[in-house]
Amino acid sequence: MALIVQKYGGTSVGSVERIENVADKVAKFRDNGDDIVVVVSAMSGETNRLTEMAHGIMDTPTPREMDVLLSTGEQVTMALLSMALEKRGYGARSFTGGQVKILTCSTHTKARIQEIDGSRIQAQLEQGNVVVVAGFQGMDEHNNITTLGRGGSDTTAVALAAALEADECQIYTDVKGVYTTDPRGVEDARLLASITFEEMLGLASLGAKVLQIRAVEFAGKYKVPLRVLSTFDDG
Ligand code: ADP
Ligand code: ASP
Ligand code: MG
Questions:
Q1: 112 Cβ partners below 8 Å, 6+ apart?
Q2: Residues by chain with Cβ below 5 Å of ion ligand 3
Q3: Which atom of ligand 2 is nearest to the CA of 149?
Q4: Contact, 40 vs 75, CB < 8 A?
């Protein structure tokens, strides 16, 4: 039995049907006896939609309120996934970043994670529940909602895996893994069987958004076993 942190990105949870597909995948791991913490992104397009609405009101939206706004995207997904799991007969509880106690600095819209209190998650796992956590968000020392910058759900997942001493962190996305270059657009991009943290850091800093750069830094620092996988492969 393993403790696995799984993260599902925007395309993977882009519709109710896709959220149901994620619930089926998580259910298989539970049937296998694994403890699962799921980190979810907002449904694809939602963070952009919210951002556009804010810019419709002000050219430079107030950073604190931007975080209150953007954090709602992930909150929708976490509730829907928990419902889909409950429908299948699996206990599930969803939590926002603040509810977990993902403590960040106060730099709104690009906050850094400082500390994670894993006790609430552990208690839920001990009760046999799947824990679903909203990615991309935390709370500062004054209880203000913060967000971690675009692509920040990757960092939530890796940081949670480190804090919980998980056996593995799996990043589920819309490509089969990490390639030599962006497989969308570059025909001869090659799927890599493995990559060192240093090499991945290089790819991420060149703009490979498959993993947020801070997630790679975290994984290297805390030696988190990290795998990038396709949500849409069977199994
Ligand atoms: P998610 O919504 O699941 O977080 P992202 O869109 O943030 O997904 O990241 C996945 C995308 O990263 C892929 O669709 C791919 O186009 C892009 N990408 C860029 N460089 C790479 C690379 N070297 N390997 C894999 N994917 C890459
Ligand atoms: N929803 C956020 C974004 O679109 C965070 C994430 O998906 O990782 O950037
Ligand atoms: Mg991403």
A1: 104, 105, 148, 214
A2: 9, 151
A3: 9
A4: no
Question: Which 3 state secondary structure label does DSSP give 227?
Answer: strand
- The Å distance, Cα 127 to ligand 1 centre, comes to 35
pLDDT tens for the chain, 235 residues long, are 899 999 999 999 999 999 999 999 999 999 999 999 999 999 999 999 999 999 999 999 999 999 999 999 999 999 999 999 999 999 999 999 999 999 999 999 999 999 999 999 999 999 999 999 999 999 999 999 999 999 999 999 999 999 999 999 999 999 999 999 999 988 899 999 999 999 999 999 999 999 999 999 999 999 999 999 999 987 6
d(CA 131, CA 152) in angstroms, rounded, equals 19
Distance 159 CA to ligand 1 centre (A): 20
* Ligand 2 binding residues, C-beta < 6 A: 9-10, 41-42, 47, 73, 135-136, 150-154
Which atom of ligand 1 is found nearest the CA of 177?
Answer: 25
